[in-house]
Amino acid sequence: MTLQDKVGKAIVQLRKGRGISQETFAFEAGIDRRYMSDIENGKRNISLDILERVCQQLGIKISEFFGVVEKINE
């Protein structure tokens, strides 16, 4: 599993853990829903700007996010 895949899975895990739909999450973070879907499915390489918006929307620090990414099993 690539880092890109793990980042996507971490976003899904954290988003679903907060009970937020992908569509609502993307809208509130100012990210196109299709782009968000591609990120979550490991099809897009996330930019730092988008990563920052994702973490802000999740209410976590970027360092905390990567802690979750590291725990994603292959």
Write the layout of secondary structure elements.
Layout: H1 3-17, H2 22-29, H3 33-40, H4 48-58, H5 62-71
What does this structure look like?
The protein has 74 residues and is an all-alpha fold. The protein has one domain: lambda repressor-like DNA-binding domains (434 Repressor (Amino-terminal Domain), Orthogonal Bundle), CATH 1.10.260.40. The protein contains five helices and no strands. Helix 1 crosses helix 5. The longest helix is centred in the first third of the chain and has 15 residues. The protein is globular, with a radius of gyration of 11 Å. The protein starts with a helix and ends with a helix.
> How far do the termini sit from each other?
6 Å
Structural class: mainly alpha
Uncertain runs: none
Number of beta-strand segments? 0
Mean pLDDT over the full residue set:
95
The gyration radius over C-alpha positions equals: 11 Å
Report the sheet with the most strands, covering strand number, pairing sense and barrel closure.
none
Percent of residues in helices comes to over 70%
Order of helices and strands: HHHHH
What general form does the structure show? globular
CATH architecture group name: Orthogonal Bundle
Q: What's the CATH topology name?
A: 434 Repressor (Amino-terminal Domain)
Q: Into how many domains do the coordinates divide?
A: 1
Percentage of residues in DSSP E strands = under 5%
Query: Count of DSSP helices?
Result: 5
The level 1 CATH classification is: Mainly Alpha
